[in-house]
Amino acid sequence: MIERYSRPEMAAVWSTENRYNKWLLVELLACEAWSKKGRVPKEAVANIKKKAGFDAKRVDEIEQVVKHDVIAFLTSVAEHVGDDARYIHLGLTSSDILDTALAIQMKEAADIIIADIIRFMDVLKARAFEHKNTAMIGRSHGIHAEPTTFGLKMALWYDEMKRNLARMEEAREVAAYGKLSGAVGTFANIDPSIEEYVCKKAGLKPAPVSTQIVQRDRHAQYMAALALIASSLEKFAVEVRHLQRTEVYEAEEYFSKGQKGSSAMPHKRNPIASENISGLARVVRANAVAAMENIPLWHERDISHSSVERIILPDSTILVDYMLKRFTGIMEKLLVYPKNMMANLNKMKGLVHSQRVLLALAESGISREDAYRIVQRNAMEVWEKGKDFKTLLKADKDVRKKLGVKELEECFSLEYHTKNVDYIFKRVFGRK
Question: Which of 3, 222, 263, 423 lies at a 20 to 30 A Cα distance from 139?
Fold first, then answer.
């Protein structure tokens, strides 16, 4: 999965090379911190920083024997450093390195996703203003309801992505905590100042209290934010898929020259990119559930979370990065058909204005129940016999008693439904 969907920037975050580099960074910072406490000679720190390195293949070879990734890594580093390697990993346990380094990687991944969201929001905003007044039918239960605009649909998505942006920024901060507090979090073999120094230098905060690990509710919140982003993208993608249906055909994905939609049917133009988004969202949501399962561990820790995180964190960040970039491209090139939108809006022969007629009748002095009965009676004739709604109302004696021709015509005004679009846009985007 990683190879199929990874982007160069995001793939680099989760590469073996970057992971080991982050481990080494934490170890070197710890050596620096110990030096300031006088426990590690400055000369040794200088030598360690000069010689420290690793060979990823060598780490794999050692791990095959010792069956422990951090020990294998430290052994490879020691082969580069020499005698001064005895000062590396002083007072630390493996999770001090793993969790602190992981927090750095999660921050890096979050930064990429945050940038993706901002780019996507820019595209949504542009499309919103482009189609601010492009009238279309709004639907509830998949059935024609009342008029809206395509720009309002885009404004809605933009506003939802603002919340996703805030969630991802918060998740980034919640995940950006390290720990160097030893085997059960008591600082028995390490001074708390070492943790503070390393975390500050690494751009993290020290966990106020920890066990052998940083608590996994932080990672679960991070994964939940990714799952919500993926779910929003699926929501948008499902809308594109519905709008592209032949019976609707109000918008569609860009179909490039030479593209083919079916091996059997040459006429096909399918919303394959949006369908791809829908499918990938299921994976990200499933991974979020796995992150929740990682929260309850035995006592001060077990290792059951580790194997899960090696899959769900790289896969989910890579997928969300891919999904955001791909759907941004979909929306940049989305083909919008205002004429088809207007044709569909008028397809029900005026029924979409029924509420306006209902309110006008009620305001004329009759009860709402009677007004509803009168309007519904005529509406059902439209459904069942295909007649024109306005024509039926004009011929209805109960309607004529209360509404003149001009008043009835006003009930069918499209502008009535779009008069507050500017107001909504100002609430979403501010004053432009």
Answer: 423
